[in-house]
Design goal:
single chain; mainly alpha; ATP_synth_F0_gsu_mt; membrane; transport; proton transmembrane transporter activity
Length: 122
């Protein structure tokens, strides 16, 4: 355990030296490449204003997303009513989507249990 701690300390020291040597250049390059996104003057007040703009813009987009959700739901209802005319490709896509949802659910359960497959800590 002590050898692993020494290795970790050594790696952390190397990483901090690398950042100290190259971090400033990377920072300046990153700012230069993305200067079109920087608001002038870069103050706390400007950041607060942008945060509020983002929040209220997202809030204003809810009715549009709500409407789009109901359109999608109406489309699914229409497909369900006319399922006799459903093509094999559409059924396959729906089955794959359901399988993907189930797989993400299973992955979430595994992550929630601490990456154990049985649910028990051994």
């Amino acid at each position: 355990m002590a050898s692993k701690l020494n290795q970790l300390t050594s790696k952390a020291c190397q990483a901090s030296q690398f950042v100290a040597k190259h971090g400033n250049v990377y920072y300046k390059q990153l700012l230069e490449q993305n200067k079109q996104y920087i608001q002038e003057p870069p103050t706390v007040e400007k950041c607060n204003l942008l945060g509020k703009q983002l929040f209220y813009t997202r809030l204003a987009s809810i009715p549009g997303r709500y409407e789009a959700f109901w359109k999608e739901l109406d489309y699914v209802k229409h497909l369900w009513k006319n399922r006799q005319e459903l093509k094999v490709e559409d059924a396959g896509i729906a089955a794959l989507f359901g399988l993907e949802c189930f797989a993400w659910y299973c992955a979430g359960e595994i992550v929630g249990r601490g990456f154990t497959f049985t649910g028990y800590y051994v």
